[in-house]
Amino acid sequence: MVLAATKVPTLSLESFLALPETKPAQEYCRGIVTQKPMPKGKHSTIQFELAVAINAQVKPEKIAYALPELRCTFGERSIVPDIAVIRWQNLPLDSDGEISDRFDRAPDWLIEILSPDQSVTLVMEKIIFSLKAGTELAWLVDPMAKSITVFTASLPQVYLAETEIQESLTVFAELENWSITAAEVFDWLKI
């Protein structure tokens, strides 16, 4: 399956945001609308388990909150990362003091899980754009290669699950007592 891209030069970001949500979600970049692939077993398992694992570390201390499939609109784009981790102080609130439905900023930590037949180049472009717009940390999880590429302001680093020496993945600095390896992430696929 190849991502369907539709060039709609007259469609503005505001018009796109007014459209009804679709499943799977659509993303917007400069008049181009792309639909994310429908998640399958490996993707869904990693997405669920990773969000739970991150929230177990960040939510009790109100460091951040990991939200799956959250629409984030910033820099004339609207993206839906597989997991968006938002620092607690950056969580938008509505007038009732509840979490807002609109997230008009780049996620602090963005996680994308590659699906079969998904373009790694387009996903990396979205990650790089997000880093330039303020994202501090991004992970590109590739279930087929059993690898996690970590993006920060410096050069990306690739972590392989099937190596003898397992290094901890880069996480938020506040999580100095928590570590997770690529092997641990991919072990969730073993049922």
Please describe the structure with a list of short key phrases separated by commas or semicolons:
11 strands; five-stranded antiparallel beta sheet; alpha+beta; globular; about 190 residues
Distance between the termini: 26 Å
Note the run of SSEs as H and E: EHEEHEEEEEHEEEH
Low-confidence stretches: none
Could you say which overall geometry the principal axes of the C-alpha atoms support? globular
Overall helicity: 10-25%
Report the radius of gyration as a whole number of Å: 16 Å
Quote the beta fraction.
15-25%
Task: Produce the secondary structure layout.
Blueprint (H helix, E strand, L loop, with lengths): L4 E3 L5 H6 L7 E4 L2 E4 L5 H18 L5 E5 L3 E3 L2 E3 L3 E5 L21 E5 L6 H13 L4 E6 L4 E5 L5 E4 L21 H6 L4
Parallel strand pairs: 8-9
Antiparallel strand pairs: 1-3, 2-3, 2-6, 4-7, 5-6, 7-8, 9-10, 10-11
Question: Can you walk me through this structure?
Answer:
- The protein contains four helices and eleven strands; from the N terminus they run βαββαβββββαβββα.
- The protein is globular and about 50 Å long.
- It has helices at residues 13-18, 41-58, 120-132, 182-187; strands at residues 5-7, 26-29, 32-35, 64-68, 72-74, 77-79, 83-87, 109-113, 137-142, 147-151, 157-160.
- The longest helix has 18 residues, at 41-58.
